[in-house]
Amino acid sequence: MQGLEGRKDLKGYAGRLLMVDLSRRTVSVSLLDRADLRKYVGGRGLAAKLFYDLAEPGADPLGPRNPLIFLTGPLTGTPTPGAGKFIVVTKSPLTGAWLESYSSGALAWQLKQAGFDGLVVTGAADRPVYLVIRDGRGEIRDASAVWGSDCFETEDRIRQLEGDSELAVSCIGPAGENLVPFACITSDRWRQAGRGGTGTVMGSKRLKAVCAHGTLGIEVDDPAGLFRLLADRVAAARENPRIQRRQGVGTSGTMLVTNSVGLLPVRNFKETSSEKAKGTLDADGMRGAVIHARGCYSCIAPCGTVTTFELDGRTAYLEGPEYETLGLLGSNLEIYDLPTVIKANDLCDRLGLDTISTGNVIGFAMECAEKGLLPPAAFPAGFPRFGDGEAALALISDIAWRRRGAGELLALGTREMARAVGGEAERFAMQVKGLELPAYDPRATLGGALAYAVAPRGGCHRRSSPVHTLVQGQDWQTPEGKAQVVKGLFDSRGAQHCLVICDFIGRGVPVTLGHYAAFLTAVTGEPWDEAELVRVTERTETLIRLINGREGFGRKDDTLPWRLLNEPVPSGPAAGCRVTAADLDIMLSDYYALRGWDEDGVPTAETIRELRIP
């Protein structure tokens, strides 16, 4: 199947999508509409438009009618800072809502070099398959030789089968095959589209991997201008002390902040700070384990750290742990032994599990057991207690393989597990819309609480994390003004996610939206400015709200866990802080008004017309 026809009028974009129907075993090419690219740019925006058009409301997330969309952006594959990521969009099997998940990895730029801005997968294969994409072509291959393998083994084996050491491989592990609803997609061993069950949807389609290798190149309108802009930002990054500090310890430095201000999850989010985490899990604790820094493609501010540990009598390596993993599989479980947390991280990576959700469900199980809501007989591998690293490691394997009673129960995810356990369990199930919370307790920052409540995919820090709302310098225990700050952060990061740009660089160097508008202009040859990129975000955010609305989501779902609304932080820097239902109501109404949505959170007809949706 040849797919290089058309779209010679576009720069930066390939102008093509690969359309894969696994039920019919067909592969075809669809040309992108130039008007859609102007309205939605790419990435999150274009994915929302495609999903709105293709997805059937009410469809089973694990059914053949749920589309799985991989997209790059117009800057992907160019030297633009942070342009080495891709986005995966589908309907979440964990929440039943809109799902977007991001990953770095070679798939992003190899897919673009192969002549495609992305691919859309529909249907379901009748036996395990993987997809190989090369210069204008896509082929469905038999995956029986790798089905059942972990993510690392799958990458290596597929490259051997294809005879191509440079092949980009994004795959699922046993967790995705076994339809654990928080399974992820793994790329280059240590990069995950982690949240909400993207790997689960791949497993439901019996799609073991998506692979790409391209040699076609990417045409840029103004290469000289692009490199001038790049040189300026590279110089800024080299002079930035924050970037220099992060290269030594990665994102573990975030724990120094969250622990000091009372945002760190401890003991299933019961506490928000820990003396034991100091010098063990934070940047000071990580320094001795870090070998070197590692960055993504086109990164000018590497934040990855490679660590080493002993595994089965040999020296093994891991990129990480990232802050989220240190928080959720560390302090949240009261495990302060860094080698144990690293092993837990490695196990999740190999089996294809989201470390955020995994840390949450284990912490939830530990509290359930502590409160007597689960009997010891439910845990053949050992009764889970806070601080028990061996029990946590055993539970990770049980979850991925869905074996034994504990694994099957925890594999439901926190919300469904709470419903199964019953009693008071739902009071300390730390999730929003079914998606487990990341490693920030928002009781000390009402803006962070609002961000969790209104995030369309559920408990999510990608748009506006509690840390970044807290540092705005306001009184964060009053609701006034929080909606404006949260919307501003959502709009800025949302634009980056339409471009499919790493937002770490935007916060650290900084590379502002104004800079990215200039990069976009140099690449595409079309004039862009910051205001237009924000408008794209506003359009995208409202379109996603419409998508969730037709699935039955509304104001009632823009809420927080019972613990956050009813239990003040018991001690530490944030002692006494909590989010009240009244404060949340004020912030929700303010946020809806700023978005042009009514009091129920439904976009008004005027807003839809003004934003030219869809």
Describe this structure as you would to a colleague.
With 614 residues, this protein is α+β, with helices and mostly antiparallel strands. A hairpin with a 4-residue loop joins β1 and β2. Helix content is 40%, strand content 14%. The chain has three domains: 16-213, Aldehyde ferredoxin oxidoreductase, N-terminal domain (Aldehyde Ferredoxin Oxidoreductase,  A, domain 1); 244-435, Aldehyde Ferredoxin Oxidoreductase Protein, subunit A, domain 2 (Orthogonal Bundle); 441-610, Aldehyde Ferredoxin Oxidoreductase Protein, subunit A, domain 3 (Orthogonal Bundle).
Name a few traits of the molecule.
single chain, 614 residues, alpha+beta, Aldehyde Ferredoxin Oxidoreductase,  A, domain 1, Aldehyde Ferredoxin Oxidoreductase Protein, subunit A, domain 2, Aldehyde Ferredoxin Oxidoreductase Protein, subunit A, domain 3, six-stranded mixed β-sheet, 17 strands
Q: How are the secondary structure elements laid out?
A:
Layout: E1 16-21, E2 26-31, H1 34-40, H2 43-54, E3 68-71, E4 85-91, E5 98-104, H3 106-113, E6 118-122, E7 129-134, E8 137-142, H4 151-162, E9 168-171, H5 174-177, E10 185-187, E11 191-193, H6 198-204, E12 207-213, H7 223-238, H8 241-249, H9 254-261, H10 283-286, E13 290-294, E14 304-311, E15 314-319, H11 323-328, H12 338-351, H13 355-370, H14 389-401, H15 404-410, H16 414-421, E16 431-432, E17 435-436, H17 446-454, H18 466-470, H19 482-499, H20 503-508, H21 513-524, H22 530-550, H23 562-566, H24 581-595, H25 605-610
Parallel strand pairs: 1-6, 7-12
Antiparallel strand pairs: 1-2, 3-4, 3-6, 4-5, 7-8, 9-10, 9-12, 10-11, 13-14, 14-15, 16-17
Helix pairs in contact: 1-2, 2-19, 2-22, 7-21, 12-14, 14-15, 17-19, 17-24, 19-22, 19-24
